[in-house]
Amino acid sequence: MMINKFIHLVAIASLALGAQAGDKEVHDFDKEVKPLLETFCIRCHGERKQKGEVRLDILDPDMVKGMDAEKWHAALDVINTSDMPPEDVKQPSKEERQIIVDWMTSELKRAKEIKRG
Description:
By secondary structure, this protein is mainly alpha-helical. The protein is 54% helix and 0% strand. Helix 1 crosses helix 4 (94-116), helix 2 crosses helix 4 (94-116) and helix 3 packs antiparallel against helix 4.
């Protein structure tokens, strides 16, 4: 039941964002995405502080083999709706936000396709 709900949510997110990533990685996590997460997210959702009991610094970026795809999906939701980062802190540029959203969407879609098979 939980997997079906997850697959449904990923499908909706992929359609809503117009994901065209297919099976290839859109952005390199270590080189492009992780530095952005460290700049805009980890100070409030890392080792020292876990606002909302959310910690992003320990999430496994491997959404196929790892166990954190649902947490990444939740993060995607709040980033995509601009609920995070909050308005009173430094915001990513449109391009930076798009890198994060594209990577999360691509990896969630890839995980969905692999797990479906």
